[in-house]
Every structure is written in C-alpha cells, then in structure tokens.
Amino acid sequence: MGRKSNNKTGKGKKKGGKVMDAAQLARKILNFLDNHFGEEFNSKQIIKKLEIRDGVTKGGVEPILHKLAAAGSVSKSPRNYFSSTKDPEFIEGIVDYVNPRFAYIVADSKFEVEEDILVKEADLKNALDGDRVRIMVYPLKGNSGRVEGKVLEVLERSKDEFVGRVEISPRFAFVVPDFRKMHHDIFVHKGDLGGAEHNQKVVVKMTEWRDGDKNPTGKVTRVLGKAGEHEVEIHSIMAEFGLPFEYPEEVVAEAEEISDQIPKSEIKNRKDFRDITTFTIDPADAKDFDDAISYQKLSNGNYEIGVHIADVTHYVRPKTKLEKEAYDRATSVYLVDRTIPMLPERLSNGLCSLRPNEDKLTFSCVFEMDESGDVLKHWIGRTIIHSDRRFAYEEAQENIDSQSGDFFEELTLLNDLAKKLRKRRFDKGAVNFETVEVKFKLDEKGTPLGLMVKERKDIHKMIEEFMLLANRTVAEFIFDRNKGADTFVYRVHDHPDLERLETFSNFAKKFGHEIKVGEGSRISMALNKLMEEIQGKPEQNVLEQLAIRSMAKAIYTIEPKGHFGLAFKHYTHFTSPIRRYPDMMVHRLLQHYLDGGKSPESETWEEKSRHSSDREKRASDAERASIKYKQVEFMSLAEDKDYQGIVTGVTEWGVFVEISETKCEGMVRVQDMDDDYYEFDEKNMRLIGSKNKKMITLGDNVAVRVVATDIDRRTIDLEFADNESNNKPRKQR
C-alpha cells in the first residue's frame, strides 16, 4: 500500500492530496499498470489504488487514460478497463523461499538475469522452496527497490513429501512441517492420518492444493513415532531429505547371488600384487575398505608405491538392479550415528571391501618414485592384491611416532614422501583448508554425552596425499590422450568469485586478519597464511567455514577444467567407488580407454555427473541436519550457564552466535533484545542501538545463555548474558 500524504490544508479546508500535473499523473498511471501486467483496472479502481484524494487529480484520471490508450501506451477494453501494453520478460528458475512474506526466484543461467527476482507470497501461486517455476518479470522495479515478478506456473515440484508433527483437533488435523522453508501447515482429513496420534512425527504427502486455498491438503504415508526420540528424529531427517530406509528386496537378492570366488581366468588378466607388502588404513569403526597402499623398494633404489582401489564395477554391472540403485543413491550418507551406504552390505563390507588376508580385485595406480617424492613413471590398470594388515588411523600413527610395530619403516617412508608431495602442492597454490570437525559421543539410546573435535594427524594427511596423487594422475592420463576431447568425468573447482572473497576479507578484518584479495595463486597464498594464523584460536572454526562458503562449489562434470582448491590442472574421483557413484563412472570410462575404445557420446555422462552433484549436496545437507539435531539436543541438556561465543552472522531479525566451547550455533532474536531498539545496518552487517548506540557486529566476542531449544526446527535460541532484564528460564520442545 502506498504511503498516505502528509500534506496539511488550511483551517476549515478538507484534507486532500497534492494536485499533480498531467505529465506526473500519466507517468504514475503508466508505472502502476506496467507493474500490474496482465490485470485490468477501470478509472475508479486506479484512483483507489493510487490513493488519489484531491478532486482535480481524480477528474484528470479518466481523460489521461483515454489519451494514453489513443497513443497506444495502454490498452483499453470495450468495458473501459485499462491494462499495460509493455512486454514483460518471462523466465524460468528455482524458488528460494526466504520467509513467509516473500521468495526469490533464482533464474536459470540461460536467461542471463542480473539479480534474483523477488516474488511476494500472494504472487507465488502456491510455489514452494526448491520448485521450478515459470514467472513473469515486471518491467519496473517495485517498492522493494528490486526487480519483482509473479509466478505463472509451477513447472516441477522439488518435493511433495514433508516431515512434521501432527496436531489433531476435534474436527480436523494439521501437520506442522519441520522444514523451516515450508511456511504452510498441511491439512489432513481424519481418515488420512494413517493411525498417527497427536504430537507424533509423520511423513505427509501433499495430494492437493487448489488455487485460493491457504493450505495444501495431504495424506500421512508413514508414522515415524514419538517426537524427540533419537530414532524418530534421525528417521525424520532421512525422510526430510528423501534418503532410503532400506534396499529393495530384489537389489539385495541380486547382491547375494554374486559369487565370492575369483576365477583363474580373471586373475590371468590382471597384474598380480599379492606378494607385495600391502595394507589398509581407515577409521577404527570402518568396515568398507576401498583403498589400500602397497610398497616395495626397487633394485635401482627407487620406490614402487601402489594405490589400489576396490574394483566395484567388476561386480556392479551396467543395466543391473544393483547399478540402478547405486546410481539413484549416488553416494553413501554419513549421519551422526549411522551410515546409509550406496551399495548393499554384501558388496560394501564384503566382496568389494579390501579386508586383510583375502585376495581382492582392484583397479590400481602404481608409481615409481624417488627419495624426493618425484614421480618418475606410473602404470594404471586392473590388479589383484592381498592385504597384509588392516590399520586404524590411530594405530598407524602410533607406529610412526614410536618407530615400532608392524610396518613402521614402510609407514614412516610413505609419510615422508607424502609430506614432500603436500609441500609441492601448496607451493603451486593449493589452499590448506583444515576444517574443524565435531564428533558426538552417544549412549546406547543416542543421547549425546559429550563432543570432541576430530584431530587430523600426519597419517590422515598421508593417505589423503596418495589418494590425491592417484586421482590427479588418472585425470591427466585421460586428458593427455586426446587433449581433453575424450568424454570423461572430472571433479572441477572453479576460481572464487572476487566479490564474495572481498566480503569474506572484510569479515576476517573484524578479527584482526588482513587478506589481500588478488587472483590465482596469490589468493591461495593469502588464504593459507590466514589458515596458519587462526590455528587454535576461537575464531578458527567460524573463519574456516566462511572461507569455504566464499569458494565455488566443487562439482562433477565432463568439462576438463581445473581444481582451484587443489591447484591441479585436472582432477577426478577414482579412489572411493564403494561410496561414490562418480568413481564407478571413472572406472568404467578408464577401462574403456585402456581397452582402446573410442570416446562415447557426452550428454549421458554429463547428465549422470549433474545427478551425482545433486545427490552429493543432498547428502551434505542431511549430514549437517543430523549434526545440528545433536547440537540442539546437546545444548538442551548442557549446563545452564553463560557461554563465550563469537558473532557469526547479523540479520535484521537476529544475531547468530557460535558457542566456542561446543561449536554449536544459535540465534539471539532482535525482538527479544529489549534493552534498546536496534536498527540493522546492512552495509556493515551490524545492529546499532538507537539510544545507547551499542553496536553488535560480525566477529564480536559475546557472552550468551541458552533460553530455548527446538528439536523439530533444530534451532537454539540465545540471549546476551548481560541482558539481565531478559533472563528467562530455558524452554525445550
């Protein structure tokens, strides 16, 4: 609604609006009709919409409309209704539903739209977050100062199933979705509750949403159980992200039918490494060992290092049920308390897993290296191995540190070579992101008893370095065959956007860290310097996470581009086919080329790459959601005291704070900050008190206390500890 006029008239005169001349009025009418493209208005409606109050201007509306129509500037219907003649822009894109009042439409790249288009809730036509829509873009910017539009059609729903809590009244029921970007409760008829009881968690499928209805209608498809219970909440996360609960029976049956015997004819076609020292190094609780390292000293004084990867595609053949299921899942998912594997256990923990003291089929990258860590030559092909030892990371590190135990000499030499490879990589511009990972200690019921920060030691970096070497070597081998013309699946990481990097640089300054934003290797050097400076400091986790967010996202594609973060000209994923479908694609294409095959058509492989990138994002989001759930639960049980924290985000509605002790993030809501009225300074990302002039900005060290936790929404509500007037008892949901 437009702003009412504040003009005052003289004593005894009626209040009225300011008289506009004909040109002003014509412009105002044109702007109004252009921003309501597709709608018709008569003169009375236009007067009301434009809030014209003075009689002179009111009387001028009708004649001006007819003049505009005669000039072709507006269209007139036989009923004397007027509409815009401007051609709006029609685009397609994805809905980003920000809050209950509006959403942004992120246009498809082919439309070359400079900024996201704002669409008000009334114009969304029941579109939801993530939906693909067709919209009409208004010719002129709206009152928001942004380009605005209107949804014409929902082309594709991103999801029609939601997880939520059932609320049952005497006559009807609603499901209140957990998903924070779903701003509509879902109406459920009593007969469609599927046995769900009040306050239980359920999966509800939207069945209808008629135009004009405030809420969609749905049907409960799965009752998860009592809200707040560990198993129920984890299942809620799985359902929310569309993760599978079990394998189809026919997929399991197909896996069980695969023989565990290796035919002699198969061994003849492979290079035999069974007599060469080989071992695996994995987390202590791992069961799927998909990589092993072999070592032997050559007669010329050099070293032969083999990186051996489970030969999954030997067992999972194209056009099988196993293949279809692996493609659909595309990745294993690691939630806070469980793994949802890409392949059935028969394969992931059995046939394909490189278990010790068993002959195993592998696809290998074998390097001849000198003492300086230089690769003198390499060989790629299918092999058979026999692992001599299964190490947990901690065991292998202990053997290096103590210089004793199984294979300590081999482990030490491999570690020395890896350090040289690592140094060389950083010298060439690789970025050293050592992110802080939090792991929860859970009891038998899943209740968090404590948390620990995972420590990355030399042994972790050693394995990583040899896997990177193998991945890079395979990518460069295929690229160099035909100057990148051969279809292949690459792992690509684009250069960071300089504007986003500038924003991050300004944020880092709040902590006293200077980052000089340049290009290429200079960016890498500046980021690495920062990573060294913040090691062990309270702001480490915050700055590492924000630095990663300022980077481009790594994706799978057939485009032979480079990997900025690793400073590799070409890179792929070859080393984890048990848990990543792209690695299976790489194995198939690699063998096809080793057999002398011609380059296949590329479109199918690009489509599979996009699917894999999408599934990777889904897995990452689900993993974060499970961690956030445990963080909320942990803080609901934590000691009721003041905590030190760092301001990690400032918005018009609240301040995000990461608690340093627990690495858990919560929000102090502006509406609860009753010591003053705070205004949001968007440019400087800060809140300023209108009376006390107190500033709250990114990077501030603050003391907070927990006032509420909400398991459903996975949120932690905080208040500033010095705000004594707002010291409330803690609430839980």
UniProtKB/TrEMBL annotation:
Start and end residues of each stretch annotated as Disordered: 598-622
Keyword Nuclease: yes
InterPro entries: CSD2, NA-bd_OB-fold, RNase_II/R, RNase_II/R_CS, RNase_II/RNase_R, RNase_R, RNR_Ribonuclease, S1_domain
This protein's UniProt keywords: Cytoplasm, Exonuclease, Hydrolase, Nuclease, RNA-binding
SMART domains (UniProt xref): RNB, S1
Every S1 motif domain range: 640-721
Main location: cytoplasm
Gene3D superfamilies noted in UniProt: Nucleic acid-binding proteins
EC number in record: 3.1.13.1
Cellular localization per UniProt: Cytoplasm
Catalytic activity: Exonucleolytic cleavage in the 3'- to 5'-direction to yield nucleoside 5'-phosphates
Family statement drawn from the similarity comment of this UniProt entry: Belongs to the RNR ribonuclease family. RNase R subfamily.
Function as written in the Swiss-Prot or TrEMBL entry: 3'-5' exoribonuclease that releases 5'-nucleoside monophosphates and is involved in maturation of structured RNAs.
NCBIfam families named among the record's database cross-references: 3_prime_RNase (TIGR00358), RNase_R (TIGR02063)
Protein name: Ribonuclease R
Native species: Belliella filtrata
